[in-house]
């Protein structure tokens, strides 16, 4: 039976867009531009540590704590370099501000194969479309620069809403904006807990993007698995 869907919501990172290179490589290149040598692997490890600590301390990019997302990220970048042994304040500030702006553009993000075409085809079939992402408020700009923003009626980030996936409230807000009941909506994403299971928990349909060779998740029927984004319409319309 064909699903009677009216709204499709989309995760962004590793669903529609991916980083062109690992974070550690981008940070190492920025450091080199300032005459500072740091290993990309060390920076990648330091970044995970700094990002994790900041996320626990100030969830949702510091929303409601008087800390804007730009300051939130500048602090993460500086701490990443400090953990990797770089302590010179002037250079830390410069690198942090440059990196914040670099990650705001198509310079560091690329569109995943099949994403543009799939979004266009969904729009042609008159699905209402929105984004639901654990991203900061740079996302509108990133999507515009990557030429994807025009596909979506709304872009919801965890910074805007104050709740991050898998919290049901970010999905409820998407349903409210889309103006449809959950059974007429589906969410597409690559994360089992944050995307697939969380959307199903509010009564939406879910599709899980799973590249070849990625492990099978328990309790996801094969008709909910997307080997690539290009498989989506066939699954919806069969």
TrEMBL record:
<dbReference type="InterPro" id="IPR023214">
    <property type="entry name" value="HAD_sf"/>
</dbReference>
<dbReference type="GO" id="GO:0016787">
    <property type="term" value="F:hydrolase activity"/>
</dbReference>
<dbReference type="InterPro" id="IPR051828">
    <property type="entry name" value="HAD-like_hydrolase_domain"/>
</dbReference>
<comment type="similarity">
    <text>Belongs to the HAD-like hydrolase superfamily.</text>
</comment>
<dbReference type="InterPro" id="IPR006439">
    <property type="entry name" value="HAD-SF_hydro_IA"/>
</dbReference>
<keyword id="KW-0378">Hydrolase</keyword>
<dbReference type="InterPro" id="IPR011949">
    <property type="entry name" value="HAD-SF_hydro_IA_REG-2-like"/>
</dbReference>
<dbReference type="Pfam" id="PF00702">
    <property type="entry name" value="Hydrolase"/>
</dbReference>
<dbReference type="InterPro" id="IPR036412">
    <property type="entry name" value="HAD-like_sf"/>
</dbReference>
<dbReference type="GO" id="GO:0005634">
    <property type="term" value="C:nucleus"/>
</dbReference>
<protein>
    <recommendedName>
        <fullName>Haloacid dehalogenase-like hydrolase domain-containing protein 3</fullName>
    </recommendedName>
</protein>
<dbReference type="InterPro" id="IPR044924">
    <property type="entry name" value="HAD-SF_hydro_IA_REG-2-like_cap"/>
</dbReference>
């Amino acid at each position: 039976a064909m699903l009677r869907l009216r709204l499709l919501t989309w995760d962004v990172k590793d669903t529609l867009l991916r980083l062109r290179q690992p974070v550690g490589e981008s940070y190492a290149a920025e450091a080199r531009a300032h005459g500072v040598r740091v290993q990309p692997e060390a920076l990648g490890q330091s970044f995970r540590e700094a990002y994790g600590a900041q996320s626990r301390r100030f969830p949702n990019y510091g929303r409601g704590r008087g800390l804007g997302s730009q300051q939130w990220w500048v602090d993460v970048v500086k701490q990443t370099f400090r953990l990797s042994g770089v302590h010179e304040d002037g250079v830390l500030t410069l690198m942090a501000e440059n990196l914040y702006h670099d990650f705001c553009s198509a310079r560091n993000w690329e569109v995943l194969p099949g994403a543009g075409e799939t979004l266009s085809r969904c729009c042609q079939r008159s699905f209402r479309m929105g984004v639901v992402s654990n991203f900061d408020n740079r996302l509108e700009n990133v999507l515009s620069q990557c030429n994807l923003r025009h596909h979506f009626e709304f872009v919801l980030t965890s910074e805007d809403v104050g709740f991050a996936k898998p919290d049901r409230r970010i999905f409820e807000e998407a349903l409210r904006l889309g103006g449809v009941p959950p059974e007429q909506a589906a969410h597409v994403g690559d994360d089992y807990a944050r995307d697939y299971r969380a959307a199903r928990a509010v009564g939406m349909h879910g599709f899980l993007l799973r590249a070849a060779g990625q492990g099978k998740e328990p309790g996801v029927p094969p008709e909910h698995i997307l080997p690539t984004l290009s498989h989506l319409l066939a699954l919806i319309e069969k």
